[in-house]
Amino acid sequence: MNENPGALVPELLLLAGAVLGLLLGAWLPRRRQRLVRLLAAGACVAGLAATAKAMTGAPEVVFGTSYAIDTATNATRLIVLATTLLVLALSVERVAGDRRETEFYVLLQLAALGTVLMAGANGLLLVFAGFLLASVPLYALAGWDKSALGTEAAMKYYLSGAFFGVVMLTGTAILYGAGRGTAYETLREGLAVAPAAAVAGGLVAALAGLMFKIGAVPAHFWVPDVTDGTPPPVAAIVTTLPKIGALVATYRLLLVAVPADVVDWPLLVAILAAASMTLGNFAAFFQTSVQRLLAYSTISQVGYLLMAVAVAGRAELAQPGLLFYLAGYAVTNLGAFAVVAELPAARTLDDHRGLARRHPGLAAALVVCLLGLIGTPPTAVFLGKLTVFTAAVDGGMAWLAVLAVINTVASVFYYLRWIAPAFRREPTDTPAQEVLQPAGTWAKASAYAAASASVLLGIAGGAVLPLLDGPLSS
Hints:
By secondary structure, the chain is mainly α. Helices cover 73% and strands 1% of the residues. It has a domain at 265-474. It has a two-stranded antiparallel sheet. Helix 12 (241-257) packs parallel to helix 14 (290-310), helix 14 (290-310) packs parallel to helix 18 and helix 17 (360-374) crosses helix 21 (442-459). The longest helix is centred in the middle third of the chain and has 32 residues, at 148-179. The protein starts with 8 loop residues before the first helix and ends in a 10-residue tail after the last helix.
């Protein structure tokens, strides 16, 4: 059994950053906790370096068959660590100096750790452990600012998570009974000869928990309320971070552990993808709150991402398309939330009137990110969508690709509803200078960095995509 802790350096760095940050925050004055933020940023930077080194090695499975370190796990590490760094930056103005500043950074790192563990888990029990570790800190973060809306959001998030967690655990138990094991390799052999009804019931229940983490239909109903009821940095986290690990975990579970000839899981995932992209787009049409619009936007993006999962093992571009799309979506979505964080008083679409004249740089970043979420070249989401749509056609699901194209065209409407006010004249009855008052420099710099990364990643996609192709370890 390979029990080398050196293979888990990025995960251990996140854990060490959280534990040491908690201890350091207990000794620092409550209004001077920026050292905890620096410690968290250092853990992320060191984790990125360790992941870059790990990518040069051969894929392996460590600690028995529990944890796989392969292309998918390393890509998830990179995306999660970079996402965490960006969140640390865009949250400075809102979090710095708060009495609960340390708690914010500690909870963020623990959620990031759980996200990575979900992606690399090679067995049902570790997936569920990662699910819990990626969930409980986010429940606390949702109520972090102790506002009325935040408390309500945290309660809805927790109750939804508790329900789907129990359902997922039930599915894990059923699959264990049917497959005589929890390791994916053992499960695949056992499920191949197990009763199809038991496999189908267990799989649907297990997927319910993962769909909750992803924010996909039918476990999506918490997303708008939690996103709209929390501060922009927290909303950015819950709409971005957990989706990364949960989507990779779903991909690995279905491809490695569940034979498609026992349960037609590709069709099931395709239906969930179609429902998510369609509901998310149409629900976003007439939203006036910017955070609520981004909440429904993220549900629709999940639908596109699930297309790659639906053709796992049936199309060569499925895995690189999923991983690249996740990277592009993460930076683009965080860029949009960075603009929201920079303009905390601009809560509605109409509040952004006059943005292009007063803050042209922010307006440009917003346009890049919103057009990027549509899938406009040369942004990363454009190339991610193109790759995933191609994979869907190659995998025999051309109908799903056609539906996705229709949804993409439809989404132009509500993204333009946000872009258009930014280039209109300022309202005469309210002082726009107060509504569009910037919060500081960190959120603004984060918006610029995210928008630039979205474009650069899209341009460099031809070189990046081949690096994301590799077999899953089992």
